Amino acid sequence: MIITAGAWSGQLLNTIGTSLEVNPVRGQMILFMTQPGLISRIVLSNDRYIIPRRDGCVLVGSTVEHVGFNKSTTAIGLEELKYAAFELIPRLVDYSVEEHWAGLRPSSPNGVPYIGKHPTIEGLYINTGHFRNGIVLGLASAHLLADIILERPPILEPSIYALTTER
Hints:
This protein is an alpha+beta fold. The chain has helices spanning 9-14, 75-88, 134-149, and strands at residues 2-3, 23-33, 43-45, 48-52, 57-61, 97-107, 114-117, 125-128. Strand 7 (114-117) and strand 8 (125-128) form a beta hairpin.
């Protein structure tokens, strides 16, 4: 069994007596509908990003809020994201926000995800705590965990990701 419950991984493991520090961090995002091609590249600045899509949608994200398991959106979050969008791409001021939503990201205390075998429960594995990098690290962390489960030589040293009492 593999625990990959995102921000809820710590709570799930607590039910079986394993303390794992994984905390939810809310990230609000907004979506503009523009004409295709208005923006041709991903734009990154500080903690904000703008991602154009082929259909003309432009994603702007995201906030970083330590508010527990609260996935609600806020007027302040909306305004911060619009301000960042208009600063980075002034032409977006001509378009309205079509959607505004929030998600929860699983944060580990030192920013390093947990990937590996449970230290005491045979057949239980963990892959969580990737915070904002889950989409980027997903394939590599899945590959590393598969290497561990199948007892293959790992693609990289797994010990820094291991669930231990020292972390």
